[in-house]
């Protein structure tokens, strides 16, 4: 006897009611007893008139919502959602039955709480006792499962029961029977039951589900979704199709073969069968099961030497089995995509193993394949490698160059030039970007690889000069097609292919310039690349124009004298103004992009450019009146001309704003902390004769009109203290210590904005920019938030409004701080540039004569202003 | 039948077009979109739609309820992709329609039209799954970069024509037009039955829910109106009966943007940045706060009624229409009708249980079809604020919301992702 409860044996007179359409329907009068049958507590009511007839027979469940009302009434909800009531003749009778119900419930709850110490004793209580798997019981089973799924304890108990009884196996024959009977109701119930079982989120159950004898039955039931009563999915057909599994080289271990199959089924369950109904916990259980399987599979494969050997021998040039080669590429592609999810060490071993067996040859085979789909796949593998470890890939490439072999980059570049498939071309361009990206130095790679690897790498280590040389050579090769622009009478009849190629090339060049402005100087200078890109501003293809425009916009944002000189030499601005003229006053993307560029010059007060543009194209500018951008530029120009020495304070303080702002336009993210390679570059370049660009820059600077106020000055003005102390150091090269120092000063409010902005007519845009939305947040956070969005919004707006009101101010303060950090690092950059490019002595003089006191004043004023704007909450006041 | 029409037919049947055709389509779309300003000007009548999120069958339902392209002019406010299982079919169909009927359909960018977001919320995976490589995703992302950031609806009528043949509640209609003033908003269910109407009342004191501010008062109040208890500004003369323009953006306003013209100074061809004006337009939300607040989304801002009021006043707008937030009723007007959220993905994510809505703005025929270009590309402001002191008050456009539910199950099939074709591991 499981329940040591004494069911009330006395019969209590009672009326049975059922709630039908909001009315209590009298089902008759009878005598009520409690009983325990088959370990199930039940309530019986026998009819008063005909004692044989049972008016009510109900099982007391944990969650029937039993209530005692007014001493004589017990109300509850049946599993089929019917509301029932027992109205007792006497309060005493009601109390007896109520007592019984209460005790039973107490008991069930204790069991459900799953106290392990007690569970052995209580297990045979079988709180979740499933009726035999028969069609007639399906409604009960369905209900029981739903009910049990509500609490965690119930789920655990149900899982145990299902596993112990191998209940899934017992259910499977019902699917076939129900299908034979064409009983849609039963099939729908089975579907619900299977859903409940999977959503129990129990690894053992899910593992059972995907095994050979079970899977088809389970997805068979899931084909009959009651939410889509007129539809039937065809999961079985898909999963039964054995031809979907391709085996290039047989995997001998049956265990692994099984794992592969199960993983595939899990993925199908996750993506197709359950996609709509998966809750987050089950989703992650499925994902982690897939993950662990994949780890096992990949580990097996890479440790199976003979297997790998056989796999790579497929690519033997003597073999003619083209289909098999393609399949092998696909196989490796799948390995690579699985590897993306692995942890770094495991991934590294896998890739290392594959590479040592000849993965590069496979990549080259694939990217030269006549079928674009295979080419795409090949580059995908390459990109996976690049994502994994760009440094490793670059060192392989440099090694090849050193050994006078054709490096992968050359192959890729040649392909990029000739590739007809635009998708593949796109991928090639991306791969080249990463592979040639000179940003990451080898030293850092060594440090990361650990001492043992580092020793190995050191032997392969190539001098920086060599790296630079390779970059120059490759870039020369890469950008060579741009030279064709010169030969053609005008860049006016480009083929579709040319246009695609040029836009990729300019895009890559823009990327290089942004990532690393020093490395590409050589090639830009020697190959006159800027001049060619300038030509592209005249092509009829607007998106190509736009790409060229983006390149110059990037040059501008670098605020580097070398690049500024390039732009002023090539009549670049004349051509950009031509575009403005062509498009104005129509409002389109090109027009906006041009306006944004000039707006940037105006906003940042880039003196040499302002002087050049207004000086040379003043008339053109004056004729553009539909926006105030150009008037603003002219005004600024006149100020520059009008005041000289006395106006310095004003000018300097005006220029502090850009330092603050450059971080806000989102384009500065490419500039990172100075890396060792860059430093090394600084350290070496001065003494080496082969790098002429510094001297070239020197002369260029002097060519800039009014060179005394070259933009490099302004970056330094913000840091009077540093400058005084570190003048000597900065004369030669920036030391890491300086950087640290600057960082330590980030708290200082040095993002001062001009107080005289208000008097300045064209300053409206500046004011608007003074409350820029600096962001603490990173992508990840946004993702999380966005994920929350759904939950949040469905659960009503309360949470949102309360957070916003309370965190509003604090958030803005935080943001402000982050902004100042950003500006400091950017300024560092400017400082570094300044020291190499311009004459530092002059800077020192300027400093001593100018702005220390004004600086602080300005800053406080600005702080107040910002505060006001934030609190007042609107930019326009 | 042209290739394009064939592609449209195929996509309408929820079948994908070949990769080469997608590339071609994206190329054409790019040529078209590059000519559009950051803020596209659209003439009424137009039907404004919110988020779609890859719910293809519900998009079909939307067209059924709102009328088909090109018979109805549409303006979609972004978030075509992610979440739902048919982002590709939905976006490609919209893009096809855009290329086929450029003047009939306007697409602007939502925060999900971004490389970063789509890699996380499903569109990227869907492309890989359905086309086997990321190429189509790349093409689409390229198009995303060209999408306009907002739209300005001009020439919307202040008065709604009572919705003719479908109009059931005839007694109320005749009663109210005479007694309560002109029809201002109307809500229809997917069968075309009117479920709710509001009128511009004669007396300001009798305003109930959705009370118009003085700037939105009907022309009949021109005389004698000033000073009758209006608490807000602008109680000047009622010399104009024109409606202001309607600004449509995906998210909302930005502290960096105080005039619509400022939006035109953005170089929009880029990935949606993490901050700045462009980011805010796509990410911000209105909220019951004063001024600006930090957004819990981590991008964009929250902005209050005062911001909306000032922005609308300064830019001659009578309404801002935006999407971006799930609203269970499909639409939600806030801040005295100064801003409305339109949400067009019913039963969002196949489980939220919400209804969807589209917003119809009628054409103002009273002015001989002439459109007042407020902030259009003609007569653009010169950047210096002029004459803000005595601006004529604007009336809000008449707004007809059509509310609809998720497509009937027999028309949609079971939403599911496409399984991978073959596997090796």
Describe this structure in words.
The complex is a heterodimer of chains A (877) and B (425). Helix content of chain A is 66%, strand content 6%. With 877 residues, chain A is mainly alpha-helical. In chain A, α3 crosses α4, α13 (322-341) runs parallel beside α16 and α21 runs parallel beside α24 (529-536). The longest helix of chain A is centred in the C-terminal third of the chain and has 40 residues, at 798-837. Residues 114-126, 644-679 and 681-877 of chain A have low confidence and may be disordered. By secondary structure, chain B is α/β, with parallel strands linked by helices. In chain B, 27% of the residues lie in helices and 17% in strands. Chain B has helices at 3-12, 19-33, 56-66, 87-100, 115-121, 123-131, 135-146, 170-179, 260-263, 277-283, 305-314, 409-412; strands spanning 39-43, 46-49, 74-76, 105-107, 150-154, 183-188, 194-199, 245-249, 285-286, 292-294, 301-303, 317-322, 331-334, 339-342, 356-361, 399-404. Chain B has a seven-stranded mixed beta sheet with strand order 4-3-2-15-16-6-7, covered by helices on one side. A six-stranded mixed beta sheet of chain B has the order 1-5-8-12-14-13, with helices on one face. In chain B, strands 9-11-10 form a three-stranded mixed beta sheet. In chain B, α4 (87-100) links the parallel β3 and β4. The N and C termini of chain B lie far apart (43 Å). Chains A and B meet through α10, α11, α13, α16 and α19 of A and α2, α5, α7, β10 and α11 of B. Chain A: Residues 730-748 have a biased composition (Basic and acidic residues). Chain A: Residues 848-859 have a biased composition (Low complexity). Chain A: Residues 11-108 form the PP4R3 EVH1-like domain. Chain A: Residues 719-729 have a biased composition (Acidic residues).
């Amino acid at each position: 006897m499981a329940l040591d409860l004494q069911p009330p044996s006395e019969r209590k007179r009672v009326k049975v009611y059922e709630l039908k359409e909001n009315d209590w329907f009298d089902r008759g009068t009878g005598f009520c007893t409690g009983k325990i049958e088959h370990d199930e507590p039940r309530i019986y009511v026998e009819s008063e008139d005909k004692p044989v007839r049972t008016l009510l027979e109900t099982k007391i469940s944990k969650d029937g919502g039993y209530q005692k009302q007014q001493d004589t009434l017990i109300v509850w909800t049946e599993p089929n959602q019917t509301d029932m009531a027992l109205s007792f003749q006497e309060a005493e009778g009601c109390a007896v039955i109520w007592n019984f119900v209460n005790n039973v419930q107490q008991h069930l709850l204790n069991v459900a709480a799953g106290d392990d110490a007690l569970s052995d004793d209580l297990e045979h209580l079988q709180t979740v006792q499933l009726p035999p798997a028969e069609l007639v019981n399906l409604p009960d089973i369905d209900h029981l499962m739903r009910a049990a799924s509500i609490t965690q304890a119930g789920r655990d108990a149900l899982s145990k029961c299902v596993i112990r009884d191998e209940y899934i196996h017992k259910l499977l024959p019902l699917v076939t029977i129900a299908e034979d009977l064409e009983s849609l109701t039963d099939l729908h119930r089975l579907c619900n039951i299977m859903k409940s079982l999977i959503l129990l989120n129990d690894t053992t159950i899910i593992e059972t589900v995907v095994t050979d004898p079970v899977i088809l039955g389970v997805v068979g039931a899931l084909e009959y979704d009651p939410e889509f009563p007129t539809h039937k999915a065809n999961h079985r057909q898909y999963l039964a199709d054995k031809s979907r599994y391709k085996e290039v080289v047989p995997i001998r271990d049956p265990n692994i073969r099984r794992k592969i199959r199960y993983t595939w089924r899990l993925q199908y369950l996750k993506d197709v069968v359950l996609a709509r109904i998966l809750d987050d916990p089950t989703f992650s259980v499925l994902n982690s099961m897939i993950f662990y399987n994949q780890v096992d599979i990949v580990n097996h494969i890479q440790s199976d030497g003979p297997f790998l050997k056989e796999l790579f021998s497929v690519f033997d040039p003597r073999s003619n089995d083209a289909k098999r080669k393609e399949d092998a590429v696909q196989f490796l592609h799948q390995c690579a995509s699985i590897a993306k999810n692995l942890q770094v060490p495991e991934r590294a071993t896998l890739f290392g193993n594959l590479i040592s067996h000849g993965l590069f040859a496979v990549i080259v085979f694939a990217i030269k394949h006549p079928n674009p789909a295979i080419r795409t796949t090949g580059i995908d593998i390459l990109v996976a490698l690049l994502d994994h470890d760009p440094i490793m890939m670059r060192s392989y490439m440099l090694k090849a160059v050193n050994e006078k072999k054709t490096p992968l980059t050359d192959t890729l570049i040649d392909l990029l030039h000739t590739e007809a498939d635009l998708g593949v071309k796109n991928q090639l361009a991306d791969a080249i970007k990463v592979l040639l990206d000179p940003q990451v130095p080898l030293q850092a790679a060594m440090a990361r690889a650990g001492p043992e690897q580092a020793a190995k790498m050191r032997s392969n280590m190539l001098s920086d000069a060599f790296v630079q040389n390779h970059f120059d050579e490759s870039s020369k090769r890469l950008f060579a097609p741009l030279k064709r622009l010169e030969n053609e009478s005008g860049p006016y009849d480009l083929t579709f292919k040319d246009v695609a190629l040029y836009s990729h090339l300019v895009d890559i060049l823009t990327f290089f310039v942004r990532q690393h402005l020093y490395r590409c100087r050589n090639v830009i200078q020697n190959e006159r690349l800027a001049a060619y890109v300038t030509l592209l501003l005249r092509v009829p293809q607007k998106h190509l124009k736009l790409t060229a425009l983006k390149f110059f916009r990037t040059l501008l944002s670098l605020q580097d004298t070398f690049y500024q000189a390039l732009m002023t030499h090539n009549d670049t601005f004349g051509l950009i103004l031509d575009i403005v003229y062509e498009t104005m006053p129509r409002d389109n993307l090109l027009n906006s992009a041009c306006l944004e560029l000039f707006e940037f010059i105006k906003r940042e007060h880039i003196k040499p450019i302002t002087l050049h543009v207004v000086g040379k194209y003043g008339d053109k500018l004056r004729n553009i009146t539909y926006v105030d951008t150009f008037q603003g530029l002219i005004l600024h120009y006149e100020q520059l001309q009008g005041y000289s020495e006395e106006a310095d304070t004003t000018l300097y303080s005006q220029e502090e704003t850009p330092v603050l702002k450059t971080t806000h336009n989102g384009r500065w993210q490419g500039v990172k902390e100075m890396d060792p390679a860059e430093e090394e570059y600084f350290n070496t370049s001065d003494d080496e004769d082969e790098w002429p660009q510094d001297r070239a820059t020197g002369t260029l600077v002097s060519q800039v009109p009014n060179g005394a106020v070259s933009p490099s000055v302004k970056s330094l003005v913000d840091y009077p203290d540093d400058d005084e102390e570190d003048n000597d150091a900065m004369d030669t090269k920036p030391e890491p210590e300086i950087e640290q120092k600057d960082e330590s000063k980030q708290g200082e409010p040095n993002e001062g904005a001009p107080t005289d902005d208000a008097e300045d007519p064209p300053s409206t845009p500046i004011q608007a920019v003074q409350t820029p939305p600096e962001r603490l947040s990173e992508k990840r956070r946004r993702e999380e938030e966005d994920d929350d969005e759904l939950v949040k919004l469905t659960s009503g707006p309360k949470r949102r409004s309360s957070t916003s009101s309370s965190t509003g101010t604090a958030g803005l303060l935080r943001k402000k701080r982050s902004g100042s950090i950003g500006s400091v690092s950017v300024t560092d950059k400017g400082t570094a540039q300044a020291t190499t490019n311009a004459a530092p002595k002059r800077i020192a003089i300027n400093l001593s004569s100018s702005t220390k006191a004004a600086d602080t004043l300005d800053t406080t004023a600005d702080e107040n202003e910002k505060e006001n704007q934030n609190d007042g909450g609107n930019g326009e006041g | 039948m042209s290739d394009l029409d064939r592609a449209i037919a195929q996509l309408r049947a929820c079948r994908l077009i070949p990769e080469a055709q997608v590339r071609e389509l994206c190329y054409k779309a790019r040529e078209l979109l590059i000519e559009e300003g950051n803020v596209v000007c659209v003439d009424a009548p137009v039907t404004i739609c919110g988020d779609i999120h890859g719910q293809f069958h519900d998009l079909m339902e939307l067209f059924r309820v709102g009328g088909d392209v090109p018979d109805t002019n549409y303006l979609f406010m972004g978030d075509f992709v992610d979440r739902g299982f048919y982002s590709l079919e939905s976006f490609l169909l919209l893009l096809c329609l855009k290329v086929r009927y450029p003047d009939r359909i306007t697409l602007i960018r939502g925060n999900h039209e971004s490389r970063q977001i789509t890699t996380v919320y499903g569109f990227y995976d869907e492309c890989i799954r359905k086309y086997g490589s990321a190429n189509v995703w790349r093409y689409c992302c390229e198009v995303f970069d060209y999408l306009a950031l907002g739209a300005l609806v001009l020439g919307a009528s202040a008065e709604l024509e009572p919705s003719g043949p479908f109009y059931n509640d005839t007694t109320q209609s005749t009663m109210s037009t005479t007694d309560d003033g002109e029809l201002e908003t109307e809500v229809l269910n997917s069968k075309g039955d009117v479920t709710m109407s509001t009128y511009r009342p004669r007396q300001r004191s009798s305003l109930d829910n959705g009370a118009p501010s003085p700037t939105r008062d009907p022309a009949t109040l021109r005389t004698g109106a000033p000073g009758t208890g209006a608490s807000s500004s602008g109680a000047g003369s009622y010399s104009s009966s024109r409606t202001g323009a309607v600004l449509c953006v995906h998210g909302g306003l930005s502290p960096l943007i105080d005039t619509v013209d400022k939006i035109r100074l953005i170089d929009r061809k880029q990935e949606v940045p993490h901050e700045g004006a462009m980011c805010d337009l796509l990410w911000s939300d209105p909220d019951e706060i004063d001024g600006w607040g930090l957004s819990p989304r981590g991008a964009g801002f929250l902005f209050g009624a005062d911001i909306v009021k000032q922005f609308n006043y300064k830019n001659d707008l009578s309404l801002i229409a935006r999407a971006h937030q799930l609203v269970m009723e499909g639409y939600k007007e806030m801040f005295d009708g100064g801003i409305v959220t339109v949400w067009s993905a019913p039963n969002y994510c196949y489980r939220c249980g919400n209804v969807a809505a589209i917003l119809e703005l009628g054409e103002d025929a009273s002015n001989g079809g002439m459109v007042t270009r407020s902030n259009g590309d003609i007569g653009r402001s010169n950047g210096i604020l002029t004459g803000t002191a005595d601006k004529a008050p604007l009336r809000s456009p008449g707004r007809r919301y059509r509310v609809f539910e998720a497509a009937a199950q027999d028309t949609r099939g079971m939403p599911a992702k496409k399984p991978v074709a073959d596997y090796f591991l």
